[in-house]
Amino acid sequence: MYDTPSGKKRVLTTWKSDSDPAPGEFSLEITPQVPLQGLIRKGSMPYWRTGPWAKTRFTGFPQFDESYVSPFSVIQDVATGSGSFSYSVLRNFNLSYINLTPEGKMKIYWDDGTKWMHHLTLPESSCDVYGSCGPFGLCVRASISKCKCLKGFVPKSDEEWRKGNWTRGCVRRTQLPCQANSSLKTQGRDTDIFYRMANVKTPDLHHFASFLDADQCYQGCLGNCSCTAFAYISGIGCLVWNGELVDTVQFMSNGETLSIRLASSDIAGSSRAKIIVGTTASFSVLAILVFAAFMFWRYSAKQNDAWKNDFEPQDISGIKFYEMHTIRTATINFSSANKLGQGGFGPVYKGILLDGKEIAVKRLSSSSGQGTEEFMNEITLISKLQHRNLVRLLGYCVEREEKLLIYEFMVNKSLDIFLFDSTLKLEIDWPKRFDIIQGIARGLLYLHRDSRLRVIHRDLKVSNILLDEKMNPRISDFGLARMFQGTQYQDNTRRVAGTLGYMSPEYAWAGLFSEKSDIYSFGVLMLEIISGEKISRFTFGDESKGLLANAWESWCESRGSDLLDRDLCDSCNAFEVARCVQIGLLCVQHDAADRPNTLEVLSMITSTTDLPIPKQPLFAMQPLNVQNLNDVLMSKDQVSVNELTQSVIQGR
Q: Which residue spans traverse the membrane (predicted)?
């Protein structure tokens, strides 16, 4: 906290070392700026900062967008010159605490009820170190963080810049007309222009301006020649900068939009550009075509170089970058004989590397809808996920428009190949199917609760369950997966993507996805594994009904034991089958609140505790006679095994 009138300030100070509690050289504080920021100092010098507070979050964190609500709260009283930062007791959060290490790392932990879980460590990139690129420099936080000058600026010292010494920063390429001639100070709106830069951690030394909206913020900065940049941020309002822009960072996604004041000649479309275009137009048609072809080649080459710069293998731990010629050789130039199947985002091929290692290559189609965002999403996600029930990503390859993901090869391919084949289905008897169900549940629990990231898969289905040489299940295809941070448990999207039949009602209709939407998909998956029937396979005529209706009817009439594929009856454990049917029906409840969470699902599968009574699924369109259902519930002929009876709990 700080109290400027009384000269009070409380800071969090590091130990000198992990074993020496004497004061260290780093301290964490909040600044009296409006709005305030979190700041780590090294001695008296700034070392790292959060970015300004925006109502429920600190900006400057690429992990958190506008929907994020921090477990901590900020109170700032501008009139009294005081401010405080504390754990929020007003919101329903798990307890959290902050630790500052002797090396200057801020670590945030939260209590999951049994132990403290690590949530976040900052700074985590060289770009996070305060002012690493100097005044008017921009640190690009991509695969390999690097400094460059802001648009319209050039290095102050070319020699030092080439040596990698960026601390002196950059200077304007073109002086602002209103600064060159004092009589033009009120005419800035006619001579200057603003360049918009997205996904930015805004610079330090901001000033709050009480403009009512973004347009007033723009007009106010434009009319003031000393205004270097502005940003209108949700939850804050208008921020402006005068003088140098220091500690500006650009992320790959999220962040704010910063508008930088430049001379109009620094922007494409200036008079210089018009002269060049006019000169070019005077050439013959042939010269124009040659020039256009050359520019297109240069553009393609730059795009290719940009891809390669963005995807340096060193940035993704444990993931290898493969050259295209290596993959073409391994797959025999993507021959049809090596094609394993066709996924939602493109074909998958088998390949054999020169060392004899077998791989599966997912070749993303340019028309598939999976672009840079999904590609980076899948690489980033899977590289951080390690579990025996998740498929392992070995590497990737990028060349021009080609984007490839290289996975470990699964000898037995995907679950649907066995499940829906009249011959192969006999190779997975009930005990093996029960093992597969448990393995998928464990993988899902890891994604939802146990991994460093909280991941919602959004496309869980039989074709995305791969089988290794021992028929152990591996969850694959994370192209649609989304990552949650901290206490976030739900999100929504305008772009609903997935597979019909597996999508929960709230996701299909409203774009809401959460742990419970994955649970719905898992419920459908369970019922498919038990019955050997596809969710998309219907019978027509008077008895038209789908898988959910069949499962509901089976549970009402026989507690679900007759839903199992008839060809597997010899290997059947009636108690396990009936219990799994009931769990599957609980997972596909219409209301997300009625579905169990992932931890509860795994507990239900691996124990013999009493289960709740499911409601009729929304898509089970054939209602049964209520008396028939009551007869089943009250029947003395319960499903039993080893003289243990599964109790039935009457609905409230």
A: 275-297
Token couple for 159 = 């020699």
Name the 3-class secondary structure at 511. Answer: coil
Is omega for the bond preceding 123 within 30 degrees of 0, making it cis?
yes
Residue entry with tokens 């001579």: 191
> Closest Cα to residue 487, out of 83, 123, 67?
67
Composition of the chain by helix, strand, coil, percent to 5: 30, 25, 40
Give the pLDDT score at 622. 42
C-alpha span between 549 and 501 (Å, rounded): 13
DSSP 8-class letter at 53: B
- Read off the amino acid at residue 511: G
CA dist 558 and 568 (Å) reads 17
CATH number of 314-407: 3.30.200.20
Q: What angle do CA 347, 352, 353 make, to 5 degrees?
A: 115
Please report, in angstroms and rounded to a whole number, the separation of the first and last CA atoms in the chain.
51
The DSSP secondary-structure symbol of 509 reads: H
C-beta atoms surrounding 12 within 10 Å:
14
Nearest to 200 by CA among 265, 268, 151: 151
Indicate which residues carry an active-site annotation.
459
The answer to whether the beta carbons of residues 180 and 346 sit under 8 Å apart is: no
Amino acid type, 590 = H
385 token code pair = 């996920």
CA distances from 3 to 41, 50, 207, 416 (A): 19, 20, 19, 65
Residue 365 belongs to what H/E stretch? Answer: none
- Quick one: tokens of 173? 């390429």
Bridge partner residues of 363 (DSSP): 404
Per-residue pLDDT reduced to its tens digit, 322-360: 888 899 999 998 888 888 877 656 788 999 988 889 999
Residue 301 is given by DSSP the state H
CB 448 within 8 A of CB 455: yes
| Phi, psi (deg, nearest 5) at residue 250 | -115, 130
Helix, strand, or coil (residue 265): helix
What CATH homologous superfamily does 415-645 map to? Transferase(Phosphotransferase) domain 1 (1.10.510.10)
Q: How far apart, in whole angstroms, are the C-alpha atoms of residue 404 and residue 406?
A: 7
Cβ neighbors of 208 (< 8 A, separation 6 or more) are 34, 35, 236, 237, 238, 239
3-state secondary structure of 192: strand
In the 8-state DSSP scheme, what is residue 229? E
What residue spans define the domains of the chain?
A: 2-124, 137-274, 314-407, 415-645
Cα–Cα distance between 71 and 87 in angstroms, integer?
6
Q: Which residues of the chain have pLDDT under 50?
A: 182-189, 269-275, 277, 306-314, 485-488, 494, 538-542, 621-652
Cα separation, 193 vs 314, whole angstroms:
38
| Secondary structure class of 22 (helix, strand, coil) | strand
Question: Could you give the CA distance from residue 576 to residue 438 in angstroms, rounded to a whole number?
Answer: 12
**Closest to 358 (Cα-Cα) out of 335, 382, 330, 337:** 330
Which pLDDT belongs to residue 197?
92
CA distances from 118 to 1, 122, 221 (A): 24, 12, 42
Other beta carbons within 10 angstroms of residue 633's beta carbon come to 14
Backbone angles phi, psi at 418, to 5 degrees: -80, -45
Q: With b meaning 16 or more CB within 10 Å and e meaning fewer, what string describes 353-380?
A: eeeeeebbbbbbeeebebeeebbbbbbb
Phi first, then psi: what are they for 320, rounded to 5°? Answer: -100, 145
Amino acid at 543: E
Q: What is the pLDDT of residue 97?
A: 85
Tokens matching residue 442: 């464990």
